[in-house]
Specification:
Number of helices: 3
Order of helices and strands: HHH
Shape: elongated
Helix content: over 70%
Strand content: under 5%
Number of strands: 0
Distance between the termini: 66 Å
């Protein structure tokens, strides 16, 4: 015996599941852009510390998240804006 989700009682559930699945790329894009901002901020903070050894690692993570954002529909303008926000947050935190 197996279940199907095509009957009238489960049509609402199927619709809800499909809507949730459809929203995943936008959620991934939003999260990825937030990570671009966060790692860009970390790059700037690490760059001001002469003893820091994490600049390259943060740059790599920022690049990874930028690629992930692109893969999920982010434009270059959105990625650039996320980077600028990271620079702004780092500059604001230093003052």
């Amino acid at each position: 015996m197996h279940d199907t989700i095509t009957g009238p009682r489960t049509a609402g559930l199927r619709t809800a599941v499909m809507a949730a699945i459809a929203g995943v790329p936008a959620q991934v894009k939003t999260h990825a852009l937030a990570q671009v901002t966060a790692y860009t901020e970390q790059v700037n903070r690490a760059a001001t510390d002469a003893n820091s050894t994490t600049v390259d690692a943060h740059l790599e993570r920022a690049a990874f998240w930028a690629c992930t954002a692109r893969e999920h529909g982010a434009s270059e303008a959105e990625i650039h804006a996320a980077r600028l926000e990271g620079h702004h947050q780092a500059a604001t935190a230093q003052h």
